[in-house]
Structure formats: C-alpha cells, structure tokens
Amino acid sequence: MILGKSTARILAPLWAALLVALAPQAALAQDAAPAVERAAATEAAPAAAETGAAAIGAVDDKADASTTDVAEGASAYKPLGPEWIKGQPTPGGLDVQKQYSPIGEQAVPFHNALVWIMAIISAFVLGLMLYTMIRFRRSANPVPSRTTHNTLIEVVWTLLPVLILVGIAIPSISLLSAQYQSAPKDAVTVKVTGYQWYWGYTYPDNGGFEVISNMLPEDEAERRGEPGQLAVDNRMVVPAGEWIRIQTTAADVIHAFAVPSLWFKLDAVPGRLNEKRLMIKEPGIYYGQCSELCGAKHGYMPIAVEALPRPQFEAWVRAQGGTVGKPEEAAAPAVAPLQQPETAAQQPAEGAEAPATEAAPAA
What we know:
Residues 185-319 form the Cytochrome oxidase subunit II copper A binding domain. The chain is of the alpha/beta class. The protein is built from 6 helices and 11 strands.
C-alpha cells in the first residue's frame, strides 16, 4: 500500500508534465483538421462548380452552342436572325398570311373560292330583296298577287343550295382528311404544353427535354429586331421539309396552339392529348399566338416556331443535352439452360420416356 502511494506520487507529476507538453500539439492538430477540411472544400468547390455548370449547360435551353459545355456537334447550331422571319402579321393586311406548309397551300385556294361563293350568294340575295321591295311596293301594286305556290321556283331554291353545299363539302372533307392524317412513324414528335401564360415544348424522341418559352419584353424584342408581343426567349425548333407530329395538352386551362402562316391550330386541353401533323417547307421563323381565351394574360403568350435544316436541328438538340437517332436495341437475354435432376431419385427409370420439357429442345 505504501509502495502504491509512493508510486502514485512519482507518476502524478510525470503525467501532469506529459499533458502540459502535449496539450499545444493536440490543440494545433484540432485547429489544423478544420483548416485541412476547409482547404479541401475550397479546392473541390471550383471543380463542383465546373461540373454543375457543365451539367446545367447540357440541358439549358439558352446554352451557347460555341462553348465546350455543349455536346459534340452542337456548335453547328446558330439561332436564326430577324432576316429569317417569314410568318408574321403585316400592317393593313386583308388576306390570310402567306402559307409555308402543304396543308396551307391546299387550303388557301379553297378559302378564296369560298369567299367568292359567299360574295356571289350575298349579292344575289341582296339584289333579289331590292328588286322585290321596288317591284312589289304598295304604290306599284295596289292589288297584291295572291299566288301561293310555284313549283319551278320551289324546286330551284331547294336543289341549288344542295348542289352548292355538295360542291363545298367535297374539297372541305378532303382538306380535313389531309390535316388529320397520321404522321409517319419516323416523324419528330413535339409535345406542346400550354401554361398560364407561357408554352412548354417537350421532345420525347430526343431525350425528353423541355424548352420553356416566354414572351420577350418590348425593348428586348426591339433590340433583337423582332416584332413586339410575338418574340420569345426560346423558340420551338423543328426540322424543315419533313413531317412533324404535334401533340398538345395543357396544365391548367384550355389553350390553343395556332400559327396562321402554317395553317395550324390545335386546342390544348387539360387531361387530353390532341395530335396533328405539320410540315414546314422552308427554314424560317413563324409566329403565332394562343387562340383560346385562357385568362388575364391570354394576349401575352405568343408562339415562335423556328424551322431549320436537319443538320442544324440535330445540333440544336445536342445543345439542349438531347439525343439524336434511335437508341441501340438491348440484346435479347440468353435462354437459361434446363435444370438437371440433382438426385438419383429424380432420374427417370431406365427405359422410361423422358419428360416433355427435356424432349422439347431435341424436337
């Protein structure tokens, strides 16, 4: 017991001296650990920022095609300038806009013919009314005629409208049929979603990315040389000279996707997916607007369609982080081998017929 106390009295000062000597080193080590962690975090931050910027640039619809952040081949895309604007309203315009789609080129002559038919019918009815009012006025006919039937007139005014309607129905049905024919299987699909109050364009065949399109402020549109209340920050980009499958829906209320110079209009209804085909014959910029009253800012959700040659369209898709071409087909899974009996009890008796499952492959 005495030895134990003596030993304790000897070791206690030594232990205290050891603690005093090592305490600054421990404190320095503790202070250095956060510093090392902060330095590592500081070094990792630029790398993470660069990675994040690359990831954002890969899907950002405003990505600069000339930077290295976009996919290979994306630098071939350059947005069309205002000199490429083709489909837009003109001051004092009286007729429909010039058409740049096969459907529009088919519809315009029919539209003009209908205008002339309506004008002729209206002029005929107006002339007939004026003739009747003057010819059969009271002063000229003190004793009115009491004729109640005229077989020839009744046949004419029944058959003539029928023939006119039949003549209108034949090209009308043909035009409707052309508009709603199914797009080819290899057509590019664009899903148009109407929001209050902007548009979203999704490309399910090219990776499923979505481009959000809002109207540009008046001063920004003027700076770019584009028409006010029609210019947008991100256009709907499609290939020119080939059929496109347009699908429309809405996220809130009913909208209508309409581009007059392409003779295209299709309602966007929440919970429904409407579909129609479209072809734009020439590269260019074509403007439209929502054509269904959808709320306070209905007049401020314009549409801008940019049609490009196929190589430039594919470059634009890559600039959005999308894919071009069909994905490689997955290899068919290998057929698992037939399981063999594990015990002698499961083996078939000598001379017995093999099970049907084993005989099938041999057959």
